[in-house]
Amino acid sequence: MKELFQHAANTDDVIVRVAVNFLPEQSQPSAGKWFWVYHIRIENHSNERVQLMTRHWRITDAREMVNHVDGDGVVGEQPVLRPGESHDYVSGCPLGTPYGSMEGFYTFHREDGSRMEVRIPFFPLAAPETAER
User: Domain named ApaG: which ranges (predicted)?
Assistant: First the structure.
C-alpha cells in the first residue's frame, strides 16, 4: 500500500490522516464485490493525553445506500495517545458497487474525563475503472 496520506482532518489538534487503496486481488467485480484497504494515522498534536474510545463510520455506496458502523476502539484497541504520539492501523471496506465513500468520527476521552469527537475525513472509494466518476 502507498504510504501517501491523501486525506486529513484536524479536530482540536488531533489529526486523522487516511491513505486508501483499491485491492483488485480481494475484489470480484463479476460477483458485485469490490474491496478497499485504508491506513489511518491518528496524531496527537495537543498538549494533553487522549484515549480513543469508539468509532462511527458512515459508508455510502454508488446507489446512495448508507451503512452506519459503530464500535469500541479501532481493530480491537483503544489506544492512549500522549502529546506528540501517533497511532496507525489498517482496515478494509467491502462494497457492492465499484465506488462509494467513507467518513466519520472517533470519540476520545480527555484526561479530565470530557469527551471529544474527532472527525475522520471524507474519502472516496473508487475502483480504477471508475476513478474518473
Answer: 8-132
